[in-house]
Structures are given as structure tokens and as C-alpha cells.
């Protein structure tokens, strides 16, 4: 257990370091925001972060981890307590940074650069992981499976939201690609020779609409039709789309995915079409945050002039949920000061790239770094994290 620094002194030093690096933190956030890249294509964002880490700390980051060329890793310190900071930087199609991942990346970058000079004094190893494709491909799930998180004792990140909240409250979720295959025919001269794949899709949609009445609390189904025929005078021989199920737990998710499957099979059975159901390679799990780390984060809010609001209503999903099933973690919301702002909208994207987003990035860096100090210097919390005992 390190005894070189007291907690107050360590927090004072990381606050000063974040403030000294304020312009760089904001610049990272603004540059990523101005140049949105969707998941698995975040080449410029990842390169920007890797270059800035090297320029600011002298730490050489590794770009490209396992099967993810836009993931990266930087590590500093040699202490036995390993704390992983997660940076997301992917954007949404058309909307850009409507989820504010530019702020997540800048906050993690700022916290890493603030902790780097005192990591050994705190007896910690600080790992910064660039985790791509949270929105569309579960980058953290791949990184977990490929060992990038191995050795972690605590994983931390902050996510922008309308207001400050200690916990995000996401669903477990999973997606299914659904493809119906029928048989084309002339829609006027010989419709009886066709098997209408779009009719199969319509029956599935109707069945899902009716099934919603019997869904369990906190279960959801939503999706899109991607194709359903090429011309109105041809019986559609194919139709398909993507559907998602969400639920409060992995077990409840399994049950709602079964509902989607049955509804699709009903459409196929009624029309005589064939159906192919292809689940994605992963599911997002529900988020299980660590009470001790959450308490430390909450106690640090006052230092940046923030107050935690009411818990967020359940919504969305995140691959940080999968991390939380393996390691103690936190995933609080850093507010943009607009209680009616809705993520995944152009309005939220505009906030994330303006002054409220700048403040959130800087405050997020300070809060993450201060919470890491608590994890390092609070004897009970440090011991529990190192031993893996329950909070």
C-alpha cells in the first residue's frame, strides 16, 4: 500500500494536471466531434488519441489490438492495482456524435494524462483502452474475449447525458437479422405461382405488435425492414430486416429473443416462405456497477461543482455491461446541463460539440482521475478491488 501521497494532495495534483491540460482535452473532444466516424472505421479518432497520448505523457500507445485495428492501449505505472479507463469514440450514422462519445474519449484521455505522473506514487498501473464500435459492433466484447482487459481490477468511464447521474440504467440487448425467402411471380398474371416474402414479414410485424401486450416489464422489441421487394408488379421473393430485443437481465433477454423468433417463424409458416434467423456474434449484458466506486465518484462531484440528479430511467444498452460482469466498474452520466436533451438526436450532438460538452470533458477527466485516487488510497476499497471480494 503506497504511503507517499495523501488523498487530498493526490487529488489536488490531478485537478491541477487536468486544468493545465484543459486546452488539449477540449481540442481532442472538438476534433473527434467535428470528424465523426462510425464503429470499426474510427481511424482518425484512434490515431489522434494515440498521438496526443504520446505527445502529452511520453507513453507510447499501441494502435490496433487483436482483431480491432481502431482499438488502442496505453499503460503507465507498475503498481499491483490495475485500473482501466475506457475511451469510446465512434459516432452514429447521419447524426454524428449524438451520443457524445467525443466527450468519453476526451475525459479518458484527460484522466490518463493527469494520473500518469503519479501512478507509481499511488501504487497503481493505469491502462487506457480505446474501445471502438460501442454503437454497432460491441468493441468491448471483442476486447474482453481477446484479453485486452485481463488483469483489470477496476474499469471506469463517464458517458454524457442530459444531467449528472451516478448510474446509467441500460438494458441487456441482442439483435437478429431476419430474412424471408419466397418465390417471385407476376403480381397480376400469375400471383398464385408466387410465395410472398413481404407477406411473411407483415405477419411477423403484426405478431410482434400483438405480442407486446404480453411482454414482461422492461422487455422491448424494435427493428427495421431493410428490403421487401423491388417492383410493385412482382411478388416479392425476399424480405428482411434487423430486430432488437432488450430486457433488464440476460435471462429476460433470452425470453424476449424467443418471442421475436416465434413471430418470424409464424410469418414463414403462414405464407410458406422460408426464414433464416441469424443472431449477432454477441449480446450486450445488463450493467452491474460497483457500489464502492460509485460512492467515490459521487463524493468527488462537489469538487467540480456538480450534483447528482435522480437515477436515469432505464434505456439503451452498452457493451460496458459485459465488462461489468467481469470486473468492478462504473458508468456514470456527466451532464450537459439540459434535462430535456435526448441522446441519439441532432440536438444532443450539437450540445456535445459546444461549451457544455467542453465542460463535461474536462470535469469528466477530473472525476475519473479523482475516483482512481480513491481506489488507490482508500485501504478498504483498494483491498476489496485487489482481492475481488464483493462490494
Quick structural summary:
The chain is α/β, with parallel strands linked by helices and 391 residues long. The protein contains 13 helices and 12 strands.
Principal-axes shape call: elongated
Q: How are the strands ordered across the major sheet?
A: 1-2-4-3-5-11
Q: For the CA atoms, what is the radius of gyration?
A: 23 Å
Provide the low-confidence segments as ranges.
none
CATH topology of the largest domain: Aminopeptidase
In N-to-C order, the SSE pattern is: HHHEEEHHEHEEEHEEHEHHEEHHH
Strand percentage lies at: 15-25%
Family: Belongs to the peptidase M20A family.
Keywords: Hydrolase
Protein name: Peptidase M20 domain-containing protein 2
InterPro entries: Amidohydrolase, Bact_exopeptidase_dim_dom, Peptidase_M20, Peptidase_M20/M20A_hydrolases, Peptidase_M20_dimer, Xaa-Arg_dipeptidase
What are its keywords?
Aminopeptidase; Alpha-Beta Plaits; 2 domains; 6-stranded mixed sheet; 4-stranded antiparallel sheet; 13 helices; elongated; Xaa-Arg_dipeptidase
Report on this model:
It comes from Saccharopolyspora shandongensis. Residues 174-267 form the Peptidase M20 dimerisation domain. Keywords: Hydrolase. One of its GO terms (molecular function) is para-aminobenzoyl-glutamate hydrolase activity. With 391 residues, the protein is an alpha/beta fold. Strand 1 and strand 2 form a beta hairpin. The radius of gyration is 23 Å and the shape is elongated. It has two domains: 7-170 and 284-387, Zn peptidases (Aminopeptidase); 176-279, Alpha-Beta Plaits. The protein has a six-stranded mixed beta sheet with strand order 1-2-4-3-5-11. The protein has a four-stranded antiparallel beta sheet with strand order 8-9-7-10. The protein has a two-stranded parallel ribbon with strand order 6-12. It has 13 helices and twelve strands.
Amino acid at each position: 500500500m503506497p504511503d507517499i501521497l495523501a488523498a487530498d494532495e493526490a487529488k489536488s495534483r490531478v485537478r491541477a494536471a487536468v486544468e493545465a491540460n484543459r486546452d488539449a482535452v477540449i481540442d481532442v473532444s472538438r476534433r473527434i466531434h467535428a470528424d465523426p466516424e462510425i464503429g470499426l472505421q474510427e481511424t482518425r479518432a484512434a490515431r489522434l488519441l494515440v498521438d496526443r497520448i504520446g505527445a502529452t505523457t511520453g507513453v507510447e500507445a499501441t494502435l490496433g489490438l487483436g482483431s480491432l485495428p481502431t482499438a488502442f492501449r496505453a499503460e503507465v505505472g507498475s503498481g499491483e492495482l490495475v485500473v482501466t479507463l475506457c475511451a469510446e469514440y465512434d459516432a452514429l450514422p447521419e447524426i454524428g456524435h449524438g451520443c457524445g462519445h467525443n466527450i468519453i474519449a476526451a475525459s479518458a484521455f484527460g484522466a490518463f494524462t493527469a494520473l500518469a505522473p503519479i501512478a507509481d506514487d499511488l501504487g497503481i498501473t493505469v491502462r487506457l483502452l480505446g474501445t471502438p464500435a460501442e454503437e454497432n459492433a460491441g468493441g468491448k466484447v471483442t476486447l474482453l474475449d481477446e484479453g485486452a482487459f485481463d488483469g483489470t481490477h477496476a474499469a471506469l468511464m463517464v458517458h454524457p447525458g442530459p444531467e449528472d447521474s451516478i448510474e446509467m440504467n441500460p438494458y441487456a440487448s441482442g439483435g437478429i437479422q431476419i430474412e424471408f425467402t419466397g418465390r417471385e411471380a407476376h403480381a397480376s398474371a400469375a400471383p398464385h405461382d408466387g410465395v410472398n416474402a413481404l407477406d411473411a414479414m407483415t405477419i411477423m410485424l403484426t405478431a410482434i405488435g400483438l405480442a407486446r401486450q404480453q411482454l414482461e416489464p422492461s422487455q422491448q422489441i424494435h427493428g427495421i425492414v431493410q428490403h421487401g421487394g423491388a417492383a410493385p408488379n412482382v411478388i416479392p421473393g425476399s424480405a428482411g430486416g434487423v430486430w432488437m430485443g432488450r430486457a433488464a437481465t440476460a435471462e429476460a433477454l433470452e425470453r424476449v429473443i424467443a418471442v421475436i423468433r416465434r413471430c418470424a417463424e409464424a410469418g414463414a409458416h403462414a405464407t410458406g416462405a422460408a426464414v433464416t434467423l441469424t443472431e449477432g456474434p454477441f449480446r450486450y449484458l445488463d450493467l452491474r456497477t460497483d457500489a464502492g466506486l460509485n460512492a467515490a465518484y459521487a463524493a468527488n462531484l462537489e469538487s467540480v461543482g456538480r450534483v447528482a440528479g435522480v437515477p436515469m430511467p432505464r434505456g439503451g444498452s452498452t457493451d460496458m455491461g459485459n465488462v461489468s460482469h467481469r470486473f468492478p466498474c462504473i458508468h456514470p452520466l456527466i451532464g450537459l446541463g439540459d434535462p430535456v436533451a435526448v441522446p441519439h438526436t441532432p440536438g444532443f450532438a450539437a450540445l456535445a460539440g459546444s461549451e457544455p460538452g467542453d465542460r463535461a470533458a474536462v470535469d469528466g477527466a477530473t472525476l475519473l482521475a479523482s475516483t482512481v485516487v480513491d481506489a488507490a488510497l482508500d485501504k478498504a476499497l483498494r483491498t476489496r478491488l485487489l482481492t475481488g471480494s464483493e462490494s
